[in-house]
Write a structure and sequence with these properties.
Length: 234
Amino acid sequence: MAKRQLPDTRPEIFVSTDVETDGPIPGPHSMLSFASVAMLADKTVLGTFSANLETLPGAVGHPVQMKWWETEPEAWAACRRDLQPPEQALVRYVEWVEALPGKPVFVAFPAGFDFTWMFWYMMRFAGRSPFGWAALDIKTLGFSLTGLRYRRTVKAALPQAWIDPLPHTHVALDDALEQGAMFCNMLAALREREAALAAIAPAADAAPAGPAGSPSSAEPTGSSAPPDDIAQQG
C-alpha cells in the first residue's frame, strides 16, 4: 500500500525569471540568455543564477527579433559573451532551483513567454522541471489588483508605488531583479487588501439583520453601485 504523501510545508520561494531570445518560440529559434532571482515575499534575495547560451543547432534568429536587437547593442553584447552549452547550463540551473530552501514558484511578466522557453529548455536539456507545470504570471496579478483590462495591464499602467527604482536593461539578470521586486510589492498590496477585507467581515457578520423584505436584507436595487467599482478604483 502506497504511503500517504505528507503536505509540503516548506515556505514558498519566488523565482523571478527573465529570458532573452532571438525569436518567438524555442526550437526554430534560440534562448540567448536567462536569469533567475530567488526571493522571499519581503524582497530578501536568497540567490541568483544567470547564463548566456550557445544557440541551438540549425536554429536561426527571427527577422523581426533580430531587427529589434539592432536597437539594443549593449544588451546584445552582454548576452553574447561567455557562452555556455545549454545541456550544461540547464542541468546546473535545475539543480540550483532544487537546492533552494523552500518550494520554488516560477514568476515572470508575462509568464506565458518566459515559462514557455524555460520549460522547453529544462525538459530538453535537464529532463525535468523543478516548478512542475505551473508559473505565476505577474500580468494576471496586476489585472486582478487594478481592475484594468487585461491587455492594458502593462508595467507603465501599474501604480508607481509598486515599481522600485531598478534598471530595466534587457540584460536578463537586471530585468529579473526589477520584476521580482515589483512582484513582491504587488504581493504586499494583495496581502494588505486581504487583511482589510478580513477585518470588515466580522463587523458585517455582527450587524443586526433587518426584518424580512426590508432594504437591509433585500437584493441590491438598481441604484446601487456596480459591483466592479471597487476593482476600478484599485
